[in-house]
Amino acid sequence: MNLIKLAFLLCIYCVSVLPVVAGQLLLTNGTLLDPSDQSISKQHLLLDETGIIARLDSVPANFAGQQLDISGKFVIPGLIDMHTHAFGNRGPNAQSEIMGPGTTAQVVLHAGVTGFVDLFGNEEQLFEHRRLQQQGLIAGADIYTSLSCLTAPGGHCSQFGKTRTIASEDEAKQHIAELAAKQADVIKLVSTIGGSLPSLSPVFLKASVDEAKKQGIKTIVHIHTLADIDSAIAAGADAITHLPDDAAITAELAQRLAANKVVVIPTLACDTDEYEFMFSDVLQSALAKQLAAPRIIQGYQKAASDMTPEQKQQAKQRTEKYYLSMKHLVAADVLLLSGTDAGNYGTLQGFTVHREMEKFVASGLTTWQALASATSAARQFLGKPAGLQAGAEASLVILDSSPIEDIRNSQKIFAVVHKAKLIN
Ligand SMILES: [Zn+2]
């Protein structure tokens, strides 16, 4: 190949990987559903890559940007998955689908997930992916991340790979200072008191939360038992994730979570959808089939035939326990955020955010609250502007039907907008 031809090919390559500077996008005649103030309005929405510019009552004369008529459609803010592991999908019988954060971030956009919080993976890979994305060099849903998982030596997370461990208050301070220097979006801590693996003690958990507060970073505590929730409340954690496995959250404990303004990311679908994936038509949904490899979906169908009556009974009892926790959390008005724990069995990247909202409604939340849990409330937790007002992110989902009428309509995706760019 001669040098001119090579230079020409390299030049084409350069152009194709350079970020496209998004112009203005005007969405006309849609119905705007804003979960931040539960408002419904028919206005035109003007966006560019920096965010929502304005809501307009009339189309500006001589508008030169891209215009899309969305008459009869509904607009919601882009969804955020508050708890994921963006390596891919884990299915039954070792039928995993390894994608890595780059591909996962592109796939979930098609589910309307325009951002996610990765709560532990390969620290260097997550750091590098986020750095390239922030520089506009790679596309995909916005990545927020704890980078690492702070746990006891030999504690939960360490079985999945390299992580940071804490055996003294000094170590807690050092790790959190290092993660702060790498601009971790949140700090993830693990408490598993009474579990089979070593747990961070309440003293080390509190030292870690104190240090994160000094650094101005919010904390999310992975919990396993009721004792872990007490430890997280005593430490002053901002959020807990998962529901306890030893017993349901009581009405009294739910009230204490609310009084201490502890947010809960229950990952309810992760704990209950394994059963639904096997014994219902959930995975026959068009969105699920679009997002996951056929072998993952077939794997769940095969796993159903392998399940014994005892296992089915145990799954049913576990599900009842999780829904009892949810009943008390909803009654106490605890702020709930949608997180999937995708990457685990019983979840699909992107799809499970919709399942989590559906299960929140089944637990007693209104459709507005369920929608907020994956949109405006999630952004508020991350310190981002929320809703569909000027200044909020230009990341949206355009739906064929209203999710306020039926939350399952969040799956009826007409188009996704990420940073003012139409995705599909
Ligand atoms: Zn997790």
From TrEMBL:
* InterPro entries noted in UniProt: Amidohydro-rel (IPR006680), Metal-dep_hydrolase_composite (IPR011059), Metal_Hydrolase (IPR032466), Metallo-dep_Hydrolase (IPR051781)
A Pfam family this chain is assigned to:
Amidohydro_1
Q: What residues does the Amidohydrolase-related domain cover?
A: 74-415
Q: Which PANTHER family match?
A: ALPHA-D-RIBOSE 1-METHYLPHOSPHONATE 5-TRIPHOSPHATE DIPHOSPHATASE
This chain's protein is named: Imidazolonepropionase-like amidohydrolase
- Which organism's genome codes for this protein? Rheinheimera soli
